[in-house]
Amino acid sequence: MITTRFTELLGIEHPIVQGGMQWVGKAPLAAAVSEAGGLGILTALTQPTPEDLRAEIRRTRELTAKPFGVNLTILPTINPVPYDEYVKVAVEEGITVIETAGANPEPFMPLFKEHGVKVVHKCTAVRHALKAERVGVDAVSIDGFECAGHPGEDDIPGLILLPAAADKLSIPFIASGGFGDGRGMAAALALGADGINMGSRFLATQEAPVHDNVKQAIVEGSELDTILNFRPLRNTVRVRKNAVSTEAVDILAKGGEFKDVQHLVAGARGRKVFEDGDIEAGQWTVGMVQGLITDVPTCDELITRIIRDAEQIITGRLADMVR
């Protein structure tokens, strides 16, 4: 068993977190990850309303008695989002771990502290992690440039970002971006992290609520099959390379504005990819780690394998090198 500051902080068995993925972080996946000893995460904004989130939390509790969390990504949106109401529901339902991302979680920290909620904030830079530490979060997730979704604008890969964070942070942190097996976990721990956060790897599991075509596309994809969109807008996002995302990148590279690609990158189109299985129907997020994904296991099989392989690397191959 691998025990770290992060497992002790949250009372979980293994230092593995399922990232909060839009359209994917639902009860079946979150519960399966938690049942396997990791930390499953419900994505709040996947639910249309705060009351739908309440129902999904209760649905998850029917599937597992182990700890799970809720992700709240706070970003500018075309239509206003009642973030306060989502937070209120999570607290009322007794959620003890909340993963925040996007904007500074400071406005919510008094409420979280009052109710004993542990806050894990996602960061793409050490300076952001240090600010999160100052406002009182309990842990941070450090996202390297390899990650799916928003990698930030600094383009710093995990090999540099993780030890840089370890040198300056005093709170626990987990590594995110490019992790999918025991080798990655052993490396993250060696670089100073207290665990790993995986999104794309959990997307290709049996319990992930997405079409099998998406899972097979990830298995068949390589580390070269992602593309960075929205770079000229300073809101970079790493997504699967397909006809839609390539067209959007080309339009922006030629001086286009967001309004010129909005019809291509609409979230509803990405949702259809996951639900209908047409991987060319819209823009959808996946990380470079897809180049390491070769199967679609259950969450229990995946987590068991990662922990076993990491332990063997740490106590076997690496230990054997020391004379």
TrEMBL record:
Database matches in Pfam families: NMO (PF03060)
Molecular functions per Gene Ontology: monooxygenase activity
Keyword Disulfide bond: no
Assigned keywords, A-Z: Flavoprotein, FMN, Monooxygenase, Oxidoreductase
Name this polypeptide is given: Nitronate monooxygenase family protein
